[in-house]
Specification:
CATH class of the largest domain: Alpha Beta
CATH topology of the largest domain: TIM Barrel
InterPro entries: Cyclic-di-GMP_PDE-like, EAL_dom, EAL_sf, GAF, GAF-like_dom_sf, GGDEF_dom, Nucleotide_cyclase, Rev_trsase/Diguanyl_cyclase
Distance between the termini: 128 Å
Structural class: alpha/beta
Number of strands: 23
Protein name: Diguanylate cyclase (GGDEF) domain-containing protein
Strand content: 15-25%
Pfam families: EAL (PF00563), GAF (PF01590), GGDEF (PF00990)
Helix content: 40-55%
Number of helices: 20
Largest sheet: 8 strands, mixed, barrel
GO molecular function, one term: cyclic-guanylate-specific phosphodiesterase activity
Number of domains: 3
């Protein structure tokens, strides 16, 4: 081969190698190195070409890649964990950045007896060894052996192969960076467990495998019960150490093929494929509970005890997806936590159906508010002595686009004790104040009464909400607003409710206790709640003319209200006879069909008391 031909081949080798290490993905790095070794071996007629790594086990070199010419026996399996001591002279030369070009083993210096024995055992007669350097550190080396003869490598050949080997080093660097990026993307940095992204990916893979094999799969969602107090009391370093200890325990008690990952904070997830029964899942759950519950020694003196709540979702793989399974296991975990620390709970499909229906209903109510499908109705409340309009109770109706006008009984229960009740409350309050201001401008001096939910009454910011709502109508005195409190709602948090009422009364707002007699009706509550009016529940008023007991109750409530300095409103007044009886008892105010049916708020200025309801 002429010098020109050799140069051309060397340039071709450089071009092919450079392109491979730039273009090929790092997942193909090993195959790319194998192809490069084969190309070098064929081009330079060597017997064996190989790469060693020094990074797998400190102090040892391991053969990671090898190409052998036909008829040459591979050595890769015998050349694992080779002590650096046995090739000390070679290591010293390479750490000094020098290539080792030996035409014969006789060229080894006198102090390289270990190398001479090591290389001779492999039948090597001559070799070229090039250091593989990354970031200034010797990470390994590439070697090219002749077994069936001797060879002296030219400076040009050594220079070209040094460039090729540096490409190996760059490939290893790219792979390391890719691995680090993958760790950042898929690994929890504290515990080294899979993070949410990798858990979701593995869960999808296990679901697909379960579909193919017809097996069951479970997802477990774990939340440590008392981690936060420990973390707050002893600091984040102790908390992190505890999380690592928990992660190690969870890994130890699972089966081969199971996966445990950390979502963040003190939440972990386990993926349990190939389950045969619910009993097997329960057994695994008990092992997880027991593993976490073992006392943990942190440092030399601190011993802490933990427990965990676990929610499980066991499914056949059909119609399941990772996000849904994680959400369902999370819901089951909260059910376990409500039952007490150190419990596990299985996801309830029927509960999910009910919760899904509830979510749909809540969304429909939110949509009704946003799309202005609600209508404000009012019902007049009159002074029984004079027949004059004193105030109007605000009532809400839903003008459903398909079902027509819906009374609150058909949908209000959907949002009780839900945040949406506050959205509705804000809407009703604003509409009531707006219409009340319009009534006053029209010369109708009626106040407006608005019902408040238990959810709103327990809100520490309730009084501020009322103040802000009144501020939007500066021409409307605060005394024009009355707020009605259900007796049962007031009892749920008497202290907070009493504080909120007192703050609103300072603004000038008055309060009524609604449906009196249907709750506990304790005199203590009457004394502690700063209310001005008691409303007698319609259930007593409706039968007072035919049932002496109900009549006695109505009279007793009227007398009780007067004894406490409160006025009394009778609800559900349906006939003139009811009106006469209530006047005789001394009841001051009344509302009901005998006076007026609920009407659109804008119709109130045109309303007149019917003659049959007059005194």
């Amino acid at each position: 081969m002429t010098h020109g031909d050799l140069s051309k081949l060397l340039l071709q080798l450089l071009a092919e190698t450079a392109e491979a290490f730039i273009v090929e993905p790092t997942s193909e790095l090993d195959a790319t190195i194998d192809r490069s070794l084969a190309s070098i071996g064929g081009l330079f007629d060597v017997d064996r070409a190989y790469v060693f790594s020094l990074t797998r086990h400190p102090g040892f070199a391991s053969n990671t890649h090898e190409w052998c010419a036909p008829g040459v026996e591979p050595q890769i399996h015998q050349l694992q964990h080779v002590s650096e001591v046995s090739i000390g002279w070679l290591m010293g030369e390479m750490r000094s950045g020098r290539a080792i070009n030996l035409e014969s083993l006789l060229d080894l210096p006198a102090g390289a007896d270990a190398e001479r024995a090591h290389l001779s055992s492999q039948g090597i007669q001559s070799l070229l060894v090039l250091p593989l350097v990354r970031r200034g550190q010797l990470e390994g080396f590439a070697g090219f052996d002749h077994i069936r003869g001797c060879r002296r490598w030219s400076d040009q050949e050594v220079a070209v192969l040094s460039i090729v080997v540096s490409g190996f080093a760059q490939g290893f660097e790219r792979r390391l960076i890719d691995q680090q990026l993958r760790q950042l993307a898929y690994e929890d940095p504290l515990t080294r467990l899979p993070n949410r992204s990798l858990l979701s990916q593995r869960l999808g893979e296990e679901l697909e495998r379960a579909r193919r094999n017809g097996t069951h799969l479970a997802v477990g969602y774990l939340d440590l019960d008392n981690f936060k107090p420990i973390n707050d009391s002893h600091g984040h370093a102790v908390g992190d150490e505890l999380l690592v200890a928990v992660a190690e325990r969870l890994c130890r008690c699972l089966r081969p093929g199971d996966t445990v990952g950390r979502l963040g904070g003190d939440e972990f997830v386990v993926i349990l494929p190939g389950l045969s029964s619910l009993a097997e899942l329960d057994s695994l759950g008990e092992r997880l509970l027991s593993a976490v519950a073992q006392p943990t020694l942190l440092g030399e003196t601190l011993c802490v005890a933990l427990s965990t709540s676990i929610g499980f979702r066991l499914v056949p793989p059909d119609d399941a997806d990772p996000d849904t399974l994680l959400r369902q296991a999370d819901q089951a975990m909260y059910a376990a936590k409500r039952a007490g620390p150190g419990r596990m709970h299985h996801f309830d499909v029927e509960l999910e159906r009910r919760q899904s229906l509830q979510r749909s209903r809540l969304e429909r109510v939110r949509q009704a508010i946003e799309e202005q499908q609600l209508r404000l109705f009012v019902q007049p409340v009159i002074d029984l002595a004079t027949g004059q309009l004193r105030f109007a109770e605000a009532l809400v109706r839903w003008q459903h686009p398909q079902q027509g006008l819906l009374l609150p009984e058909a949908w209000l229960g959907w949002i009780e004790d839900q945040p949406e009740i506050s959205l509705l409350g804000d809407w009703v309050l604003e509409q009531a104040l707006r219409h009340c201001a319009a009534w006053m401008r029209a010369g109708l001096g009626a106040a407006v009464s608005v019902n408040m939910s238990a959810w709103e009454l327990r809100d520490p910011g309730f009084a501020e909400r009322i103040r802000a709502a009144l501020a939007l109508h500066p021409d409307l005195p605060a005394s024009a607003l009355r707020l009605e409190v259900l007796e049962t709602a007031a009892l749920e948090d008497l202290e907070q409710v009493a504080q909120n009422i007192a703050r609103c009364r300072e603004l000038g707002v008055s309060f009524a206790l609604d449906d009196f007699g249907t709750g506990y009706s304790s005199l203590t509550y009457l004394r502690r709640l700063p209310i001005s009016t008691i409303k007698i529940d319609r259930s007593f008023v409706a039968r007072m003319l035919v049932d002496p007991a109900d009549r006695a109750i109505v009279k007793a409530v009227v007398d009780l209200a007067h004894a406490f300095g409160r006025t009394c409103v009778a609800e559900g007044v349906e006939t003139p006879e009811h009106l006469q009886a209530l006047r005789a008892m001394g009841c001051e105010l009344a509302q009901g069909f005998a006076i007026a049916r609920p009407m659109p708020a804008e119709d109130l200025p045109g309303w007149h008391l019917p003659p049959s309801a007059g005194g």
